[in-house]
Please model this.
Amino acid sequence: MGCFSTYALLLLRSRYFWAKQFNVCVQPLVLGDPPMQVSVRFFTILREITAKKEETLQFAEDEKVTIGFVLEKLAAHYGKPFADYVFDSQSGAVRGYLQFFVNGQSASALKRLETELADGDVVAIVPPVGGG
Model:
């Protein structure tokens, strides 16, 4: 193995080692056109369920990515606790108390769950806020 390839292998191993130590998601190196990326920010209970403040998802450029599609992908990844919190178990609909924001703008002012996302968009899932 040449000097460059040995260094590259060490760098790659180091990247995954530190990611595992600090519970950070490391995206694979992509050659050519990078896929579309959408970041999702979690708050309160969803932050506990996912053990993350934010997740970056990658999609093929030709995929139609909506808020609803992102929620389905996240439910498949995080399983029953995530799905039970986001979706009504009887109807399968997204729970009405959750609010969604795309780049700081309420999805209610857009197309709600059918809002199409673009590369670099940030989706925030905001649970109800109580207090007084």
About this structure: The beta strands are 36-41, 54-59, 99-102, 105-106, 122-126. The CA atoms of residues 98 and 127 lie 5 Å apart. The helical segments are 3-21, 44-50, 67-78, 80-86.
